[in-house]
Write a structure and sequence with these properties.
This protein is an alpha+beta fold and about 100 residues long. The chain has a single domain, classed as Fusion Protein Consisting Of Minor Coat Protein, Glycine Rich Linker, Tola, And A His Tag, Chain: A, Domain 2, CATH 3.30.1150. It has a three-stranded antiparallel sheet with strand order 2-1-3. The C terminus is likely disordered.
């Protein structure tokens, strides 16, 4: 399990250090009861770990539709590495190696 977490963190860190920021476009439907269905990536970041995180973020969102019809949305999920994030990422990687 620790190895899998490390590989995911390493993939995310590599993408961030390589490009500093990235965006994932996620398309999904919101049903009349607020459930999110039919999620798909419209534009990938190029990194499966970042794409999966975008899915997770969208799934956590709470929707309150005004009617019972299904609405389709395309949401840009942006990831940006800040200077603080760089040091935090380095500290997290050091903890994994211990």
């Amino acid at each position: 399990m620790r190895v899998a977490k490390f590989l995911i963190l390493a993939a995310v860190a590599f993408t961030f250090f390589a490009c500093k920021s990235t965006k994932v476009l996620v398309q999904f439907d919101v049903e009349g009861n607020g459930n999110i269905t039919n999620m798909q990536i419209i534009q990938s970041s190029g990194n499966p770990a970042i794409d999966a995180e975008a899915f997770r973020v969208v799934q956590m969102m709470k929707w309150k539709p005004q009617n019972d019809s299904i609405h389709t949305f395309i949401l840009p999920v942006k990831f940006k590495l800040s200077k603080k994030g760089q040091s935090d990422s380095t500290q997290n990687q050091q903890k994994i190696f211990q």
